[in-house]
Amino acid sequence: MNTLMYHYVRPTMDLPPYGYYHLSLESFRRQLDHLEAEYDMLSREAFFECVRGERTPPEDAAVLTFDDGLEDHHRWVLPELERRGLWGIFFVSTGPLADGRRLPVHRVHTLAGAVSADRLVDELTSLLSEAGELDDASRYEEMYSRRGTPEQVRTFKRILNQEVPYERLDGVLDRLEAAFPNAGLAVDAADYYLTDDQVTDLVDAGMVVGAHTVSHRILSRLSPADQRVEIADSKAYLESVIGEPVRVLGYPYGTAETYTDETLAIAADQGFEAAFTTEGRATTAESFDERPFRLPRFDCTEFPHGESREGLPRTGSGPEAEFGAEVLD
Known about the structure:
CATH class of the largest domain: Alpha Beta
Distance between the termini: 23 Å
CATH architecture of the largest domain: Alpha-Beta Barrel
Number of strands: 10
Number of helices: 12
Oligomer: single chain
Shape: globular
Strand content: 5-15%
Order of helices and strands: EEEHEHEHEHHHHHHEHEHEHE
Number of domains: 2
Helix content: 40-55%
CATH superfamily of the largest domain: Glycoside hydrolase/deacetylase
């Protein structure tokens, strides 16, 4: 079984994060055409039968997943799936729904889409010039190893997503945004994320809503207690919105170094039936049986028509990886 992961899907780059990498709506449609022609689009019921060990996942099956709880997913993705009679799993980070604020990861995307990478890195370096302010980032280096992002953008994202202590991150982003007052960085979270009602719309349309933590932090950077809060509070919030159990979890970033054994134990303890990483390979019956809280996913860029807007260098290890481009976290 091949589980595909999507982030931004939209017809235009006029919306934040502007020029940052996204899959065009037309490419998304062409990719769905390809998947429907070449793969078994596994039904929702069959997927959960695989989770429970009641069915062997077909090798040529495909399942669609969408990360972060973006407004794109209600505005453009949902109508396309409904038109085709398809379903998907939507992993929603709940912080923006609860407090109306954008997540740091998406503030980083908006900066990267609106300001040149050289200027961003120069400004960020000056802000973090004091010695000893950054966490050790060496254990996160694999997060971008398969990606074609230009080096300066990679550096900018790596520092903010992996190294700046979380208690300082919002303040650093505030100062960065203030340094570029004419870049269109004052983005309203209401125009960026799903609302509670839109999350309910997804469920009413037959989609599956999964947890994606509260604040989209790297879980391995957190204490086990803080990991539990991120996972449990996200699940509880979504269940209060949709009125039914949240059965699946997606780890933010999702590479092996971004979660821990404690993360897996918390996922099991919270009653999830399965949890997904971003480790690009097929899901087998053994995956469901032996590691249900470490299920792999391919990025959509590893399949035909998944190229990001910028047409980055082809990368990846998926079944059709020669078509790949940029991964978005």
